[in-house]
Structure formats: structure tokens, C-alpha cells
Write a structure and sequence with these properties.
Number of domains: 1
Order of helices and strands: EHEHHEHEHHEH
CATH superfamily: P-loop containing nucleotide triphosphate hydrolases
Radius of gyration: 15 Å
Helix content: 40-55%
Strand order of the largest sheet: 2-3-1-4-5
Number of helices: 7
Number of strands: 5
Shape: globular
Largest sheet: 5 strands, parallel
Strand content: 5-15%
Structural class: alpha/beta
CATH class: Alpha Beta
CATH topology: Rossmann fold
CATH architecture: 3-Layer(aba) Sandwich
Length: 164
Amino acid sequence: MILIAMGVSGAGKTRIGEMLAERLQCPFTDGDAFHSAANKEKMHHGIPLTDEDRWPWLQTIRTAIVDKQKAGETAVFTCSSLKRSYRDVLRNGDKDVCFVYLQGSRKVLEERLTTRTGHFFDPSLLQSQLDTLEEPGPDEAITVSIELTPEQIVEEVLKQVEER
């Protein structure tokens, strides 16, 4: 099983992903690590990424997912996965890939981004991410509110994974 914590910047993908991996006793991989230096530079300067910027990044993450599956591993990844077409690249028709959509209000996301340090993402890009976001339906993802505590989010995700 591959879980992908998804959502806009500030949703808590890394924290929840790490906690899920710890509970599942499996590897965790942050999708941001696969961004090219050029992508990171653009985001650092407040320049939104285009689909052309994202396709190679998504394909690299998909390759990492396949590598984990070939090794017979359960794994947790993070990736914003803002559009259905991006999720389609990552899933590639694979029923073993499960998205976890961390859904939050603009207000909560803005609060989180203004207090975050040490990340290359320029908080001014939140609006472009929200504009790009195609929220997944229940056929595509487990949706959990970021208004819950991280522990509650993890419990809810694991419960829903078990029910699938």
C-alpha cells in the first residue's frame, strides 16, 4: 500500500505523512525532495509552477512509488497533487495508491504559512495553489479536516484505510 498525503502548502502533509509512516512502520518520502532546483527557485521567488514544471517532478515521484512497490514495501509519500491529472500520473491506474486529502480553510492555511520557517515555499503562492486545486471526491481520496489534531487526523486516516 502506498499512501500519499496531499493538499495545498500549509495543510500539514509532511507532519501527517511522517506520523502515518511511523504508525505503519514504513518509509516516508517527502515529494518536495523531488523538485528540481529550478522549481524550488521559482517557488522561493513567488513564481507559481506551471504544468510543464510539474510533469517531470510527478513522474519522478511515480518512479519512486513503483520502486517501493517492487520492493514489496508499504510507504507514505507527500505531494500536493492539486489536480486530478496530477493524481492520475501518480496513481497510474494503480489501486494500491491511496490519496489522503488534508482539507483546510484558507484562514487556517494562511495562519500556518505565516508562522512556518525554513521552507522554500513563498506564502504568497497559496492563492495560486487554491486556484489550481481540484478537490478530490470520495472515489479518489480519503478526506480529513486539518482542524483536527494531528493525532486525530492519523487515527481517522488509518480507520478509513482499514475500511477500504
